[in-house]
Amino acid sequence: MSAIGHLPERWARPAVGLPGRVELTGYLLVPYLVTLPASVVRHYAVIRALYADGAGMPGLLPGSAWLNVLA
């Protein structure tokens, strides 16, 4: 994810054509546009399932989650 900081240098090089620049930019943006949001949504879904916050979702943990962890 830290390689995206070098993107302006790559765009400034005249040896790299526009298709290469676009491909490199897309490749470097994948962690931000796909992986990170998917991870956040997945964790949000797990939390909702554990606490049964959604309509019609069964509770997987009865009572407080901390009490289940400490028991």
Layout of helices and strands:
Elements: H1 7-12, H2 18-51, H3 65-70
β content, as a range?
under 5%
Order of helices and strands: HHH
The geometry reads as rod-shaped
Radius of gyration (Å): 21 Å
The number of distinct β-strands equals 0
| Poorly predicted runs of 5 or more residues | none
Q: How is the main sheet built?
A: none
Describe the structure.
- It is built from three helices and no strands.
- The chain has 71 residues and is mainly α.
A few lines on this structure:
This protein is mostly helical and 71 residues long. The protein contains three helices and no strands. The longest helix is centred in the middle third of the chain and has 34 residues, at 18-51.
Structural key phrases:
single chain; mainly alpha; 65% helix; 0% strand; rod-shaped
